[in-house]
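Aggregate trends can hide what the representation actually does to any particular protein. In the encoding step, the backbone of a single protein was reduced to a row of integers, each denoting a local shape. The record that follows shows the chain in one-letter code together with its fold in token form.

***
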Amino acid sequence: MPRIERLLPLLLALLPAAPSLATPAALPAVPVAQTGTATPGPDPRAHWPALDPARQRELRARYAAWRALPESERQRVRRAAADMAALPPAEREALRNRFVALDRLHRDGWRLGPQLGAHYPKLQPLLGYLPEHQRAPMLALLYQLDATQLAQLGVLSQRTPPQERDALRERLLALPPAQRADWLRQSTESR
């Protein structure tokens, strides 16, 4: 699957809130002064009051998700955005339609970045009802895991009964980083 198709859900989950990802065609024309520097264009915040509160919340959530991504994940998104901008309009629209057809839960999972977004459907039982005090430490931990470890955690997440997921998260968070890979492998084999 081409890179753009793997990252499309993330792009569509974040792009409207990440102005730095906008393609030149999507930006308003900005006149260039005689000095050769661009003059400020229309202020996008001017339209903010006209948006309904639900749309404002959505855009805030997207922007917060973008800001929370590690820089390496942002770079992957920027490259994919450039690839997407180069596609013919019909192909971009077809990809957008595929994204819209996804369950909202999975669309929102892509806000966690390319790596976590790809694993989110299986991680959701573990992360879907994450207590606020565990959110930042758990996300930091997840960004440290490789694809194999994320897949193993996805298996654990699926196999762990709801009443045991809190204990699973606490155990995972308490593990020293050097022991996580072995623990994930052993836990996956024993379940």
Observations:
- The mean pLDDT is 79.
- The chain has two domains: 1-25+49-111, 113-191.
- Residues 53-68 form the longest helix (16 residues).
- Residues 47 and 56 are 11 Å apart (CA to CA).
